[in-house]
Design brief:
The chain has about 100 residues and is an all-alpha fold. Helices cover about 50% and strands about 0% of the residues. The protein contains four helices and no strands. The longest helix is centred in the C-terminal third of the chain and has 18 residues, at about 75-90. It starts with 5 loop residues before the first helix and ends with a helix.
Length: about 100
């Protein structure tokens, strides 16, 4: 499977806030990193390239949205928006 957010995935450190036991997590690297940002784990700020990548993916998944809808969000809120966009996309496709 191709990496959806390659510049996000490169920040994967093997941790995800889904469970106390990291071996229980089934998140892909991109999702784990976004969950860390959403949970405000101490991380560096998203780079401009990472923000653009996240915004593009959110727009791709959220029908009727535009980059301006996400451009001014904090890193935490942008990560949450991307995760929510993925859920919306999956629901729209009947996958959830």
């Amino acid at each position: 499977m191709a990496c959806l957010l390659p510049s996000i995935a490169q920040d994967y450190c093997g941790e995800c806030p889904c469970y106390d036991d990291p071996t229980s997590c089934v998140c892909l690297a991109e999702e784990a990193v976004l969950r860390c940002y959403a949970a405000r784990y101490p991380r560096t700020a998203l780079s401009p390239a990472q923000r653009l990548e996240c915004i593009a993916d959110a727009v791709r998944c959220e029908e009727g949205s535009s980059a301006q809808d996400f451009a001014t969000l904090s890193d935490q809120d942008l990560a949450r928006a991307v995760l929510q966009a993925w859920v919306t996309y999956c629901r729209d496709k009947g996958l959830l």
